[in-house]
Amino acid sequence: MLEALATLLAFQLLGETVTHLVGWPVPGPVVGMALLFLAWPMLPRLHARVAAVAESLLANFGLLFVPAGVGVMLHASLLADWWAPLLLAVVASTAATMALAAALFVALRGRSGGSPPPGGGDAEPLARDAPTGSGSAGADGIAAVGAPRDDAAARASGADSPQGRG
């Protein structure tokens, strides 16, 4: 665990060094995280160790918001003075992010040759959504996709109960 924590801190230090040497206006820990991401495939023996440290950090993640909350409370008068431009910036950046994500999705879906399923975009119904009838349901009450299922057999086997679902 100590080795993994030292590795995380070393990448943070490396990121700080890179940002100071190059003069990027990006926080050093962000650059360090990117460098760790790029080096991750070359560090297979640290995967399990870093995972344990990451779980510990994520378990206490809420504590990392305390300083930000204190800063907001400390500068509440500034927020009162600048609420309109801040609100505009938050709404505009959220809209821009959503628009960019949608455009990127459409571009990548078109590039990969993806198209909606035939039939107006509705996929074939799942077995549990199939109409009832004297279809070919198995002993567990689950029919093949598109085949009708026998609801009496499904109820008898418990497939419709929350305990019967896997």
Explain how this protein is built.
With 166 residues, this protein is an all-alpha fold. Helix 1 packs across helix 2. The two termini are 36 Å apart. It has helices at 2-22, 28-39, 47-59, 66-74, 76-81, 83-111, 151-157.
Poorly predicted spans:
none
Task: Indicate the percent of residues in helices.
Answer: 55-70%
Mean pLDDT: 79
Major β-sheet, in short? Answer: none
**What string, H for helix and E for strand, traces the elements in order?**
HHHHHHH
Structural class: mainly alpha
End-to-end gap: 36 Å
Record field, number of beta strands: 0
Count of helical regions: 7
What can be said about this structure in brief?
With 166 residues, this protein is mainly alpha-helical. The chain has helices at 2-22, 28-39, 47-59, 66-74, 76-81, 83-111, 151-157. 7% of the residues are buried.
Layout: helices, strands, pairs:
Elements: H1 2-22, H2 28-39, H3 47-59, H4 66-74, H5 76-81, H6 83-111, H7 151-157
Helix pairs in contact: 1-2, 1-3
